[in-house]
Amino acid sequence: MIAGIEFGGTKTVVAIGHADGRLVEEFRYLTTNPDDTLRTAVEWIRLRGNPEAVGVGAFGPIILAQDKPEYGRMLATPKPGWEGFSLSAALRDAFPDVRIVIETDVNAAALAESRCGAALGLDDVVYITIGTGIGAGMLSGGRLVHGALHPEFGHLKVPRFSGDDFAGVCPFHGACLEGLASGPAIAARWGAEASTLPPGHKAWEMQAWYLAHGVLALAAILAPSRVVIGGGVSQVESFHALVGSTFRKLSAGYFTYGEGVDFIMPPSLGQQAGILGALLLVACG
Amino acid sequence: MIAGIEFGGTKTVVAIGHADGRLVEEFRYLTTNPDDTLRTAVEWIRLRGNPEAVGVGAFGPIILAQDKPEYGRMLATPKPGWEGFSLSAALRDAFPDVRIVIETDVNAAALAESRCGAALGLDDVVYITIGTGIGAGMLSGGRLVHGALHPEFGHLKVPRFSGDDFAGVCPFHGACLEGLASGPAIAARWGAEASTLPPGHKAWEMQAWYLAHGVLALAAILAPSRVVIGGGVSQVESFHALVGSTFRKLSAGYFTYGEGVDFIMPPSLGQQAGILGALLLVACG
Q1: pTM given for the model
Q2: Considering only the top CATH level, what class is B2-107+271-284?
Q3: Can B2-107+271-284 and B118-267 be said to share one CATH topology?
Q4: Mind listing the pLDDT tens digit for each residue in A16-52?
Q5: Which residue from A72, B14, B213, B281 has the least number of CB within 10 angstroms?
Q6: pLDDT tens sequence across B166-223
Q7: Nearest Cα residue to B104 out of B126, B78, B81
Q8: Which fold does the domain B118-267 belong to in CATH?
Q9: From the CA of A263, how many Å to the nearest CA of chain B?
Q10: Interface test with A, best of B114, B122, B134, B140 (most A CBs within 10 A)
Q11: B280, B111 in Cβ contact below 8 A?
């Protein structure tokens, strides 16, 4: 038996299951301060036995380099109380001599979609989520991408949609991709939540433009064979087809491997991607 | 003894040396048609003995997946006669039972700079070259990035420099990064070769803007710890410092690992990067 924990900005999920991603039982609850949030997960796991390993997908920024003493420590985050908290130290205290593997939530989701979801069997995969922010997890040659810290995909800059002069909502960059196309950006620009804007509203053409430019940057840098786009702001009808056709127009026949209709896909694991990814991490992290 | 070959659009370099990158002897000559170009390299190598392995860095696009029968085959290229030519088949005929490892020229250069150059010892490294085109080789977690084909970094799109309405020279995309900031783009925009434009010319401020946006996309996607920029158009005085300061302004304190003055560096192997990378490939390709 192994355990998985997904620490999200709003909710935390804890589960027991197997290293191949089969989930036996899970429990979802609200994320509060780090001590309470972690204790709830630990107690829930302990009632079910002593895990052989614990896989964790967490919001970031978080240090992922396993050879550093700061492995699993949270960096500057607006989430109260979490900055400086070490997930690995807390979990080692709770489960001594148990292997702990820590990843970002988006990398865990990318792994899950590539092992049992919409990117099944593919080794070069990006999972994008569009919600309060825009983030991405990435698998390159079958391995999760960390780099010097981990990708912060939402903060690249893309050309403006013609006539869009909205200042953007990113506190760092204003009009980066996240500043122009996250849920709060849409709400601020149109005065309405994304979920209330119907298919065919101009907001979606603009949204597809921004996302397609992000996908173009991914194609130029990582050359993924599939891009899975999830999160609340991707739920509108035909969203993936619209991003796909915009991408193909921008690509102009150049990124030919991205011309199939299955290059840009919705996730197939939905809400489960993060926690399944946490279980899968144990075997490959 | 191992052999290395660098097939460039203009010149080809062949060398013998060791798998740790120590070069014993090299020979440079003009790239012509594939048969003649390859034969020259093969004869030069044979005169020096039978190599244990051959590492190749080549211009692209080229198929890099070692498990495909098309491994080492050139795809659509404007270079006459090369489209469809299989480097691996030709080299296997010339050196039966010898291990052949094939990479892009930019990946070979990225590997060389990370093993014995300006990114010594780093595992997350990008090598950009700006000349006739803009390309990049990438090392993520110590492994060369291939993806579905290989990165075509020059073809991402970035926001316009204020007031720049030049249409761009990319035959596919017009104003992609390569279309706006390659050598031919500079020559067409300013009516003068890049090498004749003095430091302080407005061209360099604009050039730094475009390159810094490309580096921002790299930071958001691969999070490299160092970006090495080479190629003819990067030779002007203070170019790397200017791209670095523009990147830091754009990053606005977000990509903190990129704030050091050594984040963006010139190559230290110069003309030798490609051929040294070809030798190094044998041990890690």
Answers
A1: 0.95
A2: alpha beta
A3: yes
A4: 999 999 999 999 999 999 999 999 999 999 999 999 9
A5: A72
A6: 999 999 999 999 999 999 999 999 999 999 999 999 999 999 999 999 999 999 999 9
A7: B126
A8: Nucleotidyltransferase; domain 5 (3.30.420)
A9: 11
A10: B140
A11: yes
